[in-house]
Amino acid sequence: MKHVRVDRGAIPFLLGGANVMSPGLTNVGGFMPEDSEDIPGVDKGDGVVIFAEGKEYAIAVGVMTKSSAEIRKESKGIGIEIAHFLGDGLYQTDEVQ
Prior knowledge:
Elements: E1 2-6, H1 11-15, E2 20-21, H2 23-26, E3 47-52, E4 60-64, H3 68-73, E5 78-85, H4 89-92
Parallel strand pairs: 1-3
Antiparallel strand pairs: 2-5, 3-4, 4-5
């Protein structure tokens, strides 16, 4: 699974369950896989693991709502819809049946 990194400013929002806004991926500290000529680094609909600037471990997983090329072109709106984040109900579950 591909991974992305959000800037430090996005961390508290993600840990509160918010989706990732595009500027959090394009600002200094953010990262997305490089795009080639015709192929985006990450496609719309791809699942991604989300890391945070300055942190060693992933803090969330989600699904891209736009391709990385679209986000780089216009850094506005929701870039990743969050499916699971550090500290949510699934994370705190003792046992999944």
